[in-house]
Design brief:
The complex is a heterodimer of chains A (about 280) and B (about 270). Chain A has 10 helices and 2 strands. By secondary structure, chain A is mostly helical. Chain A has 2 domains: about 110 residues, no CATH class; about 150 residues, no CATH class. Chain A has a two-stranded antiparallel ribbon with strand order 1-2. Chain A is flat, with a radius of gyration of 22 Å. The N and C termini of chain A lie far apart (about 50 Å). Chain B has about 270 residues and is α/β, with parallel strands linked by helices. Chain B has a single domain, classed as P-loop containing nucleotide triphosphate hydrolases (Rossmann fold, 3-Layer(aba) Sandwich), CATH 3.40.50.300. Helices cover about 35% and strands about 25% of the residues of chain B. In chain B, the strands form 3 sheets. Chain B has a 6-stranded mixed beta sheet, sandwiched between helices. In chain B, a hairpin with a 2-residue loop joins strand 1 and strand 2. The longest helix of chain B has 15 residues. The chains are: A mainly alpha (about 280), B alpha/beta (about 270). The interface between A and B is medium-sized, with 31 and 39 residues.
Chain lengths: ~280, ~270
């Protein structure tokens, strides 16, 4: 049985594998949340998918941080109303997004020319008002887009997202790859974890940096070969049961007046945000 | 004949998996493909399921050639997938849906059954296999025995005419092994074609009426299971048994061929 609990005592590579496994576990938890009753969960997956795409486009068109901040606040509010746990669904993605966008946003604080708002004598640099604005804009944009994507993931079962993509004429090959990735990622991460645990059970003491690098390279090579084998097997297993690219579900999608009304409202909000935010 | 395998050769890059293999299987028989690791059993099952295609030679299913072009035709592909089911050795690759119920419903949905019929049939098979309580569980978190049962249910829900099994009892504890065999025997009921690849000789007589021994990609013996189990020279030559030495109480060391399975084989 699988389960990722506690903190590993491994090195960087092992910790990364454990981190990825936790992320995949979270994806399974997302599917559990998606079938709970809640506001967002009650809408047609197609309406939700289109609404998310429209909102993400609006966030990218808007260039005023306060407009994006309102959209982010709205996203959090929607999550709360829909019983989506903020701590589990949004906080991890906020931390990851902040880390990656921060790497770009922090230098912008100092490098963007403009009016100085704070002097840092230790490094002899100024934080500029324009720099703060650019960093906030970048940071908010990344956080809002990733939160919207998580909102969709936590309010819609994965298979429904796939079917909605097909209904919206996304090519079969793209949907097949997405569908397989979900299952395949977990298997690959499990294989990687077993490899590291087996290595740890046979080693004593710490490896030198050189040995560690060699081990990491060898492991990557084996994982690549395993990933190819696993990918093939998962696809053959799907094919064997009649899968030909189309996604068929027990639940038929039905766009009701309520779905159309919600989609129209979101579109109006997104258009307004894009216009006001320009 | 339900399957006619005519001089089939298949390679993995340079390594030959099947070498001009010939085999005919008639409808309603239970055939065991027995052989050591790497003898070509799993490859043959994949060929029989139309998942991979031979480099030379041909395979016919009820007189229809199993070639890639035929599977491009939706009608042929659907009718073949409806009639032939394969249980993979590693159930993890076969369980890719969010819940056990979705997993079992996957095949019938691909066959475009009515949703009411799918629900009814899935509940019925889960109930028959004693796994109804698992219906809302996430498949990858199940135990090994439960995964195997779910994998079997995902295929038997379609009630195929032919069932292909790749090492069905590998890595199962003795109780799960016996439950699995019982389920199979109960389902087949003497009317279905069941082709089982195994190197576990313990269950051979329960699961097969005919035993084909494979070695280096060829069928080297094709006899009833009891005959094969009696032929120690054949079993030793094909690496299916080894000389087992042990001491009974305080008597001298004695040896005999080792037939019972090791559950650590994966």
């Amino acid at each position: 049985m699988t389960g990722v609990h506690g903190k590993s005592r491994g090195n960087f590579l092992e910790n990364t594998i454990y981190g990825l496994l936790k992320a995949v576990e979270r994806a399974f938890y997302a599917d559990e949340t998606a079938v709970r009753s809640g506001l967002l969960q009650s809408f047609d997956p197609r309406a939700k998918l289109v609404a998310m795409v429209v909102l993400i486009a609006a966030v990218n068109f808007a260039s005023r941080p306060w407009v994006i901040a309102i959209l982010l606040w709205g996203t959090v509010l929607l999550a709360l109303i829909s019983s989506i746990p903020i701590r589990c669904a949004l906080v991890p993605v906020w931390v990851s997004a902040a880390t990656f966008s921060g790497a770009i946003a922090v230098p912008a604080l100092f490098l963007t020319p403009g009016q100085s708002v704070l002097r840092l004598p230790e490094v002899n640099m100024d934080v500029t008002a324009q720099g703060v604005r650019t960093a906030a804009y970048l940071f908010l944009r990344v956080e809002t887009c990733s939160s919207l994507a998580m909102l969709l993931a936590f309010s819609t079962p994965w298979t429904h997202v796939l079917k909605a993509l097909r209904v919206l004429r996304v090519p079969v090959v793209f949907v097949v790859i997405l569908g397989m990735t979900f299952r395949y990622l977990l298997l690959l991460m499990e294989a990687a974890r077993e490899m590291f645990e087996s290595r740890r059970s046979r080693s004593v003491g710490r490896l030198s940096r050189g040995d560690y690098r060699r081990l990491a390279i060898a492991t990557s090579g084996v994982l690549l070969a395993k990933s190819f084998q696993l990918g093939t097997d998962v696809f053959l297993a799907m094919q064997s049961r009649g899968f030909r690219g189309e996604v068929y579900l027990l639940d038929e999608f039905r766009m009701t007046a309520r779905d159309w009304a919600a989609l129209s409202s979101i579109t109006v909000i997104a258009l307004a945000a894009a216009c006001v935010g320009r | 004949m339900i399957f006619e395998v005519d001089r089939v050769t298949y390679r993995y890059q340079r390594q030959v998996a099947l070498n001009e293999l010939c085999l005919d299987i008639s409808e309603g028989t239970r055939v065991a493909l027995v052989g050591a690791n790497g003898s070509g059993k799993s490859t043959l099952l994949r060929l029989l399921d139309g998942l991979v295609f031979p480099e030379a030679g041909g395979i016919r299913f009820r007189g229809n050639e199993l070639i890639e072009e035929h599977f491009a035709d939706e009608t042929f592909a659907h009718s073949f997938r409806r009639e032939v089911g394969l249980i993979f050795q590693n159930p993890d690759v076969q369980l890719f849906n969010p819940t056990v119920f979705d997993e079992v419903a996957f095949g019938p949905l691909q066959m475009r059954w009515r949703t009411s019929e799918v629900r009814e049939r899935v509940n019925e098979i889960l109930n028959r296999f004693g796994i109804l309580h698992l219906r809302d569980r996430i498949p990858h978190r199940l135990s090994g025995g439960e995964k195997k049962k779910v994998a079997l249910a995902t295929v038997l829900v379609l009630d195929p005419a032919v069932l292909l099994l790749d090492e069905p009892t590998a890595a199962l504890d003795p109780r799960s092994q016996s439950q699995f065999i019982d389920l199979l025997v109960q389902w087949a009921g003497g009317t279905k074609t069941v082709i089982t690849a195994t190197h576990d000789l313990g269950d051979l007589q329960d699961i097969a009426d005919r035993c084909c021994v494979l070695q280096a990609g060829q069928v080297v013996a094709d006899r009833p299971p009891a005959d094969v189990l009696r032929d120690y020279d054949l079993l030793q030559a094909t690496n299916l048994i080894h000389e087992h030495r042990h001491r009974h109480h305080t008597t001298a060391v004695h040896s005999h061929p080792h037939l019972h399975p090791h559950n650590t084989d994966v």
